[in-house]
Specification:
Shape: globular
Largest sheet: 8 strands, antiparallel
Radius of gyration: 19 Å
Number of strands: 12
Helix content: 10-25%
Order of helices and strands: HEEEEEEEEEEEEH
Distance between the termini: 66 Å
């Protein structure tokens, strides 16, 4: 074996060993979920515990961001809009999607929600189930979301009576 191949094998082995033994909870995939849970979202635009695993940032080839979002039971986004729309692909659990002025819709594993541009909406887990979705969020320039007011507990509790 040449010296460069040996060094390459040692490097790859050390990288794999380091990743597999990480104590960082954000790198684990609990319960055989598709992606790691990611980092807790602390931007003030979510109620409850939600986590983001960023899968693809906007770059010169992709005018969108792609993320796996985990909502614990009761967690939800604020009302918000997207200047060029968003697509949600639910991969686990049960949750809610609601557009302003319309009844909330149940969303569950396998559902795809195509959200038109500038439609005020919110989404999140049901009160009794976590919900995980992949979000594909398009950009207009450097903007991909406009955050608005929180969904009130009263409104959220009313949706969960259904």
């Amino acid at each position: 074996m040449t010296k460069s191949i040996t060094i390459a094998l040692i490097t790859v082995t050390l990288m794999l060993f380091s990743c597999n033994n990480s104590k960082d909870k954000t790198m684990e995939t609990p319960n055989n979920e598709l992606f790691p849970i990611g980092d807790k979202i602390t931007n003030g635009y979510f109620t409850g515990n939600a986590f983001l695993c960023l899968l693809q940032e906007k770059d010169k080839n992709n005018d969108f961001a792609l993320g796996n979002v985990t909502f614990e039971p009761g967690a939800r986004t604020n009302w918000h809009t997207h200047p060029r729309g968003q697509v949600l692909i639910v991969t686990e659990g049960k949750g809610w999607y609601q557009e302003k002025g319309k009844p909330a819709q149940v969303i569950k594993k396998g559902d795809v929600v195509n959200i038109p541009e500038n439609v005020e909406h919110w989404h999140g887990a049901s009160a009794d189930s976590k919900m995980i979705h992949i979000a594909i969020t398009n950009y207009q320039g450097e903007e991909n979301v406009t955050w608005l007011q929180p969904v009130t507990d009263a409104d959220y509790n009313e949706v969960n009576k259904n």
